[in-house]
Amino acid sequence: MEKKKTEQTNNRKTIAAEYCEMKTERQPYLDKAKKASEYTFPTMYTDETNIKGSLKTLKRKNRVPNQSVAADGINNLSSKITLTMLPPNQPFFRFQLDGIKAKGFPEEEITLINRGLAITENFVTDYIEELGDRVCTGEGMKHLYIAGNVFFVHDPKNGLRYYPLDRFCVKRDYSGNVLKAITEEKIAVGALEPEIKEQIKEKLILRLLENNENTNCDLEEKEVTLYTCFRRADKKWIVTQEIENVTLDKTKGEYPIEIAPFIALRYTRIDGESYGRSLIDEYIADISYLDSILKAIKEASLAASKFIALVHPNGMTKIKDLAETPNGGFAAGRTEDVDILQSNKYYDLQTAQAMADKIERRLNRIFVMKAAIQRDAERVTAEEIRQMASDLEEALGNHYALMSREFQLAYVKIVYFHLKQVKQQELPDLITNKDYHITVTTGLEALNKTSELQKLSMFFKMMSEFAQSAQIIGAKTELIAQKVANSLNLDIQEMLYTEEEKQQMQQQAREQSMLQGLAPNMINQMGNIEQERIKQNGTQ
Q1: pLDDT-based confidence at 56, cuts 50/70/90?
Q2: Residues 6 or more apart whose Cβ sits within 8 Å of residue 227
Q3: Environment class of residue 478 by beta-carbon count within 10 Å: exposed (0-12), middle (13-18) or buried (19+)?
Q4: Which residues 6+ apart lie within 8 Å of 333 measured at CB?
Q5: Containing H/E element for 292?
Q6: Residues facing residue 15 across a β-bridge
Q7: Please, which residues bridge with residue 241 across strands?
Q8: Which residue among 113, 383, 424, 469 is buried most deeply as judged by most CB within 10 Å?
Q9: What is the reported pLDDT for 59?
Q10: What are the residue ranges spanned by the domains of the chain?
Q11: 88-115 burial code (b ≥16 CB/10 A, e <16)
């Protein structure tokens, strides 16, 4: 029995072998990512190769781009999306009691539950601020826009980490659900646990002997490849790690299926594909064209700035005299013999520059740059700028909606799961408990922080116009208000009085009216009583 189990273990496919197989599907997307990085951040990707069995990284010759529009746009977009998804010191999510379940609770209990959920939201927000995941998210977003894919893993101690496209592989089903993901990273032997370190050293010594290399080197400084596999199983995620074909049993873990320990992001979601396409890939035509035009303008400008004097070969002016004459000095010669070389390409360069400006303005709109907001005019009103800025922000609404589903929701779940592991009984189970659900605020609603206030202002403005006409024709004002609120996607149920509250207000109004009617009579009676008392005192 033990022999059979050993044979099964030996025949088991290693994580490294699975990773090599998955790299074939990833390669076309990685090639596009490297091409896109040439126009933005050329140092983003490097090529690796194995030389005599030792891992050595060879940096490919980086192409210097001729423009910085794409890089500037990527920085701007990553900053905007990061601040929107992880706003500083304010929750971007809400824990809410399920509406159907809430009907079975008394109103006082619902109020207490909502208060506790609000406290939990602030608690999680403070924990996120302590982790400092905003920096990692911003860097990861750059890879998302350039490569179209990025992989995040949340560590309960160190927070969020990201892996570029050349460091992970992923397999999805047709609907986009992740079935398996493997990450690759380098780690020094000296950083490993003592029980696994000796096994790895033995593996390295054997490999050095096979390659006839020196075994007296410091093995502590050697780097080995750590593979981490996230595999989807029945109602759970299984996490395993492997180094040099040695499985690390101590790091093996399991997560509920609702709480993925990773976040695999795509810029575009395409059904049937495991990887997404990038923003740069969609607009590579304009970016490459602009790069070529600016390269030509740059070379022509350098050539035009070169100062060369031409001397007539049959003239009286000697080249040696001109060369040796100091600035401000005198030399024998004729002006007709000397001329300055000119390219006479000014108007041609103007045409190229006009085309470059046109493409740059188009790219600025894509990257939501401020340069695309203000139109070219002598006077631009503040309202025009606000409106154009709003239009540009709304252009990213679909992207923000995708990020809310694939990043924010998954991020809140894994952060809360790790936080609950630390706090144990102090926090309730809000992720797997079906009585609660998480609402993430993003997209157009999150872009415009005053959207709720604007809806209220528009609602009351419209009601002030409808109220007078409604009274004239005898229409139901409350029903009109509800229809207006529905058209604005505004919930006004909490603002309206209930039937019990209306009856209490009517009762209070009747009592107040009765008191106002009785008050004069009571004052008169008290005055008559006082007069009788004074008369009696005077008679006595």
Answers
A1: very low
A2: 15, 16, 19, 182, 183, 184, 241, 242, 243
A3: exposed
A4: 315, 316, 317, 318, 321, 322
A5: helix 284-304
A6: none
A7: 228
A8: 113
A9: 47
A10: 9-174+253-280+399-440, 283-372, 451-495
A11: eeebbbebebeeeeeeeeeeeeeeebee
pLDDT, mean over the chain: 78
Do residues 172 and 274 touch, judged by C-beta distance below 8 A? yes
Distance CA 295, CA 241 (A): 47
Name which of 76, 81, 68 is nearest 42 in CA terms: 68
* Segment 108-165, tens digit of pLDDT: 777 787 788 888 888 888 888 888 888 999 999 999 999 999 999 998 888 899 999 9
Rounded to whole angstroms, the Cα distance separating 54 from 360 reads 45
Q: Tell me, yes or no, if the pTM score tops 0.70.
A: yes
Number of H helices, E strands in the chain: 18, 15
475 or 11, which is more confident?
Answer: 475
Where does residue 338 rank: exposed (0-12), middle (13-18), buried (19+ CB within 10 A)?
Answer: middle
- The tens digit of pLDDT for each residue in 497-535 reads 777 777 777 777 777 777 666 556 665 666 666 666 666
State the amino acid at position 443 in one-letter form.
G
Q: How far apart are CA 90 and CA 122, in angstroms?
A: 8
Helix axis angle, 346-366 to 69-85, nearest 10°: 10
- The confidence score (pLDDT) of residue 227 equals 94
Tell me the Ramachandran region of residue 407: left when phi exceeds 0, alpha when psi lies from -120 to 50, beta otherwise.
Answer: alpha
Q: Is the pLDDT of residue 485 over 60?
A: yes
- Residue ranges of alpha helices (H) inside 132-274 are 133-147, 194-210
User: Above 70 in pLDDT, residue 8?
Assistant: no
Tokens 């229409």 belong to residue: 475
Structure tokens at 174: 């047709």
In whole angstroms, what is the distance from residue 410 CA to residue 339 CA?
71
The model's pLDDT over 225-250, given as tens digits with 9 standing for 90+, comes to 899 999 998 889 999 999 888 888 77
Q: What is the DSSP letter of 250?
A: G
